[in-house]
Automatic annotation (TrEMBL):
InterPro entries: DUF6069 (IPR045713). Keywords: Membrane, Transmembrane, Transmembrane helix. It comes from Plantactinospora soyae. It comes from the Bacteria. This is Cell envelope biogenesis protein OmpA. The chain crosses the membrane at residues 54-76, 83-101, 107-128.
Amino acid sequence: MNPVRATTSTTGALVRTGAIATVAASAATMAVAAVGHAAGISLDMSGAPIPVTGFGVLTAAFSLIGVVIAALLARFAERPRRTFVRTTVVLTVLSLVPDVIADAGAATRALLMLTHLVAAAIVIPAVARRLAA
């Protein structure tokens, strides 16, 4: 078996899974934001509205960065799955910091944090399953 082909195949599966998880997470964060807004939670931050689609776009961007991190770890880390999960959990916690200090109401900040957690709950396990333990 050609080792380059095996790596490419594994990377391809990782990227496909990551892309599917990214789409699902983007849709989920937009749904959470839309439901929150419909329930009366403001999507304004510093007096400017956050469009519902903005949740999906940012989720996609950061999820794809996570897929790149996973691909690099798959190639270079001794324990890619463990390293990926630990790294992404720390990054998820750090992603909550701007929401905590945001110029927005408490409900808005909570909704923002919820969208981060929803995205992480979708992307991290899906991508981690594709990494070697």
